[in-house]
Design goal:
single chain; 396 residues; Growth Hormone, Chain: A; 2 domains; 83% helix; 0% strand; globular
């Protein structure tokens, strides 16, 4: 088997495992109001179904490597697939809020494990340009997952399913991952990493360069988490629209995110990464303020609201991926550790910052503007402090 064919098979096999986190998080978004009604939960309680998943997903980034050293990559991957399938099905069968929260933790740990190990398998199985190509494609899959998963959830609801049906489908996805790796396991090299990435965490965490650009990646995650958490309530309750209107919003968001990614390559040929990211944050601040001021003075029509979302997503697409890449560029000697720490800080800060404002504020258009303005202003202040304190800038 040629390396090219082997890479294609590997990517096809890993596309689903790297997407489990996005599916677990975002397929349930269209049915959050239904879960609240079925279990008699408040919006704050519903938010913890999302928040706890994000926190657990963040913490697991630091646990996968030591677990793989003890259990072996193959066995850990199989255990994660089984755990994911079992926890998803049990959530679909449960009517206990406390049990659902516990199972969401298990689900998050399993989904994060398949994501981290999938990226590691590309590194362990291939070399040189094949590794770069594999990581680029899988990163694109993980970026599109959060935007397309809500549409899949909406399709299940339209076909007559309930919130329980979505978790049963997630359980089937876990079974599919297990079957794929029983059938395609020979494609991969299953040896464990020789160097423990934990040894490099302190060095990376002490780097102003890392935080200068990692904070911008986190800003994008804060925004998208607020966006996803608010949209079902705004579309259903404020605008009195149905599930396909929500799907339209997510589809438009997906297209604009992709367009922003293409535009970023053009912009980066003209200006440095740092300047581009700074300008994107300013644009996000302005857009947030415009929505807030408009919503406080007059009703925002639904088409205008979708237009605002499209502009935010276009801007997000310009800086999100490049910010992650730039943050990791200075740590070529310890790429696994840098990737793990980047993932941890991104999801942990999302839990603390975005999850915090979502608990404090409601689910209206005005609240969305307020929350977006708060998290963007926080990011701008942190980025400005690091830039002025340490004078960090990326290369052209």
């Amino acid at each position: 088997m040629t390396l090219q064919k082997r890479l294609v098979l590997a990517i096809l096999s890993l596309a689903l495992p790297v997407s489990l986190g996005a599916f677990s998080m975002d397929m349930v978004l269209p049915v959050l109001p239904e879960i609240a009604r079925a279990l008699s939960l408040t919006p704050g309680q519903i938010q913890w179904i999302l928040n706890l998943f994000v926190l657990s997903f963040a913490l697991c980034h630091l646990l996968v490597d030591p677990m793989a050293d003890r259990m072996g990559v193959y066995f850990l991957f199989v255990a994660a697939a089984v755990g994911y399938a079992a926890s998803s099905v049990c959530i679909g069968l449960s009517s206990s809020y406390a049990l659902i929260l516990f199972l969401r933790v298990v689900q998050a740990l399993a989904a994060c494990t398949t994501l981290v190990l999938s990226m590691a398998l590309i590194t362990q199985t291939f070399h040189s340009s094949y590794v770069t190509r594999g990581h680029t494609i899988l990163s694109g899959v993980t970026s599109l997952g959060p935007l397309l998963a809500p549409i899949a959830g909406a399709a299940i609801i339209t076909a007559g399913g309930s919130w329980r049906s979505i978790f049963f489908m997630l359980g089937l996805a876990g079974c599919a991952v297990l079957i794929l790796f029983i059938r395609r396991g020979k494609v991969f090299r299953w040896h464990a990493e020789e160097e423990a990435p934990q040894q490099s965490y302190g060095k990376i965490a002490a780097s102003p360069y890392f935080w200068r650009y990692a904070i911008y990646a986190s800003t994008g995650m804060w925004w998208i988490f607020i966006f996803f958490s608010s949209m079902p309530f705004i579309v259903y309750s404020i605008y009195d629209q149905g599930v396909w209107a929500l799907s339209l919003v997510f589809l438009a968001a997906s297209v604009c995110f992709l367009a922003g990614g293409f535009l970023s390559a053009h912009f980066l040929r003209r200006i440095s990464q740092g300047r581009l990211f700074d300008r994107c944050i300013v644009i996000q601040l302005v857009l947030s303020a415009v929505l807030l001021l408009t919503a406080r003075t007059l009703p925002v029509p639904f088409p205008a609201f979708i237009g605002w979302i499209m502009l935010m997503q276009l801007n997000w697409g310009v800086y999100f991926g490049p910010a992650i890449s730039t943050a990791l560029q200075g740590f070529s000697e310890s790429p696994v550790a840098a990737t793990a720490l980047q993932g941890f800080q991104q999801y942990a800060s999302t839990f603390l910052v975005a999850g915090g404002v979502l608990i404090v504020f409601g689910r209206t258009v005005t609240d969305l503007g307020v929350m977006s303005l708060i998290v963007t202003a926080l990011s701008a202040c942190i980025g400005l402090f690091i830039k002025r304190r340490y004078g960090v800038e990326a290369a052209m």
